[in-house]
Design a protein that fits this description.
The chain is elongated. It is of the alpha/beta class and 504 residues long. The chain has a 5-stranded antiparallel β-sheet with strand order 2-5-6-7-8. The termini are far apart.
């Protein structure tokens, strides 16, 4: 009986998990709207007057359109702030002016503001300093609750991937989003503790500032990473010659640096527009939206890059269970005389060492599948070269299934699996491993799944400067493989940035 596709049951569980998360988001949105509809038809205008030794005895209110809201009364809090209570009557807008009258008959400075009533009856106060409505704190608490729930789901899914050795682009996404949410919630939580949130605009401004803090916190580790990958690329090009793929780290570092400098320059320009708000209000609004959107997008992809490096490292450190039936050895270039290069010999030796350890521990032998075709400058195929080496190390010929037609890693996996299927009628029930260099292990997991089977990686050591480019390649692979999800995130940041722009 044919097995289900690799990880099919886990994929179904994950889909159900995220379906419940999405349903929760919809429910929280409905609750937020319902609460605002019920509580939002009443609103307290807080007027910050200078403290006086006399009590406020009355308030003179002037409403441009008295059919929009009505005044229910007024009170004074412990900070000597006057609070005027309003109740909505019908949708619309009106300008409002409030003047407090002291006990001796004197009048305080008039406070002017804009009042509007939405189609759901919510009163919204709008002026050049803020936008506010009743119930925004409840919306904040529900948002924080949802983000904490999402963080929990991401962390649980990420840890589950580690436990089950499911190294995949999906795992990177879980880890990246978890890192992003952890950093974001930590900064936002700290800011909420030290600041008193007095309006919706203030809340939005703090969220925008959280993104800036996020970016600043990430500058030191990203600068170190950029320097490291650039140095490794230079070393790689000196050893292997210039190829675009060998300069990938330098290219990404330059893009990151340009983005960072660009944000700083844009911020200086945006601040300068405050001195001429009358003529540049629309331009300042647009720049603010773009700036905060870019900041959050950069922070998000920085989190994904760190997650990629972490997942690739974990994959390279993982050791498969000692129950393997087949070990695919992924090929690479050989010497002109047909002998193995140190890089390829390391892969074969790691497979041999694992198989010996498995046999010593369990008494179970595994078959080797050396995989690799013949290059234009090679006298024999890589698969045959590895087969000769295995025979020289005492491996019985019947435990070697040579694959000698593949031209890349994807075909290594594809053709090797076909050979295993032909060799074993119950191949779908067998446990498979693959041996490759440590920086290449994560890619092996990805490509085995793309070929429809589960396999676990055996890692061989190599030079340190191969790692950064491997991480970056998987990072770019993540962006492409999960492009729809990333576009959804970018769209979310765009919508959020519009809100940020409204706060300034």
């Amino acid at each position: 009986m044919k097995q289900s596709p690799p990880g099919a049951k886990r994929a179904v569980k994950i889909k159900k998990r995220f379906l419940l998360l999405n349903i929760t988001a919809v429910l929280l949105l409905i609750i937020s709207v319902q609460y605002i509809m019920q509580a939002g038809d009443d609103y307290d205008v807080i007027i910050m007057y200078t403290a006086s030794d006399q009590k406020y005895t009355d308030v003179r209110a002037e409403l441009e359109n008295p059919d929009i809201v009505e005044i229910k009364g007024f009170s004074v809090n412990e900070n000597q702030e006057l609070i005027v209570s309003l109740h909505s009557l019908k949708p619309g807008k009106t300008d409002a002016a409030f003047t407090a009258i002291l006990a001796d008959g004197r009048e305080t400075t008039t406070y002017t503001t804009g009042i509007s009533v939405s189609i759901i009856g919510t009163i919204i106060e709008e002026n050049e300093f803020m936008v506010n409505f009743t119930g925004f704190r409840v919306v904040l608490y529900l948002l924080l609750g949802y983000l904490l729930l999402a963080l929990g789901v991401m962390l649980f899914s990420f840890i589950e991937c580690i436990k089950k050795a499911e190294y995949s682009y999906r795992m990177i996404a879980f880890g990246g989003i978890a890192l992003f949410l952890t950093t974001l919630l930590s900064i936002l939580g700290y800011m909420l503790m030290i600041f008193d949130i007095y309006s919706f605009s203030h809340l939005v401004a703090l969220i925008a500032e959280t993104g800036e803090w996020f970016m600043m916190i990430m500058i030191p580790p990203m600068a170190i990473a950029a320097a490291a990958v650039s140095v490794s690329n230079i070393r790689l090009m000196r050893r292997e010659g210039f190829r675009p793929v060998n300069a990938l780290g330098i290219a990404v570092s330059v893009v990151w640096l340009i983005s960072l400098v660009g944000i700083m320059l844009v911020n200086d320009f945006r601040v300068s527009l405050y001195y001429d708000q009358e003529h540049h209000e629309s331009l300042r609004y647009f720049i603010t939206i773009v700036q905060h959107m870019v900041i959050y997008i950069i922070a998000y992809f920085e989190s994904m890059l760190i997650s990629t490096a972490l997942c690739a490292f974990l994959a390279s450190r993982h050791t498969p269970p000692q129950d393997r039936d087949y070990i695919i050895i992924l090929g690479c270039a050989i010497h002109r005389d047909g002998t193995l290069t140190p890089l390829l010999r390391g892969r074969v030796d790691s497979a041999l060492n694992f198989e010996k350890s498995q046999y010593d521990a369990t008494g179970k032998h595994a078959c080797f599948v050396p995989s690799g075709g013949q290059g234009s400058d090679e006298i024999i195929s890589e698969g045959e070269a590895m087969e000769r080496y295995l025979l020289s190390r005492g491996v019985a010929p019947e435990r070697i299934l040579c694959e000698n037609q593949s031209a890349n890693t994807f075909q290594n996996m594809q053709f090797s699996k076909e050979i295993i299927d032909r060799h074993d009628a119950d191949a779908d029930q067998k446990n498979i491993a693959f041996a490759t260099t440590n920086y290449h292990v994560f890619r092996g997991y990805i490509l085995s799944k793309q070929n429809g089977f589960d396999a676990q990686g055996i890692s061989a050591k190599t030079k340190w400067y191969f790692f950064p480019n491997a991480f970056l390649r998987e990072f770019i692979g993540l962006l492409y493989d999960q492009k729809l999800r990333h576009l959804t995130v970018i769209l979310f940041f765009l919508l959020a940035a519009i809100g940020f722009g409204l706060a300034f």
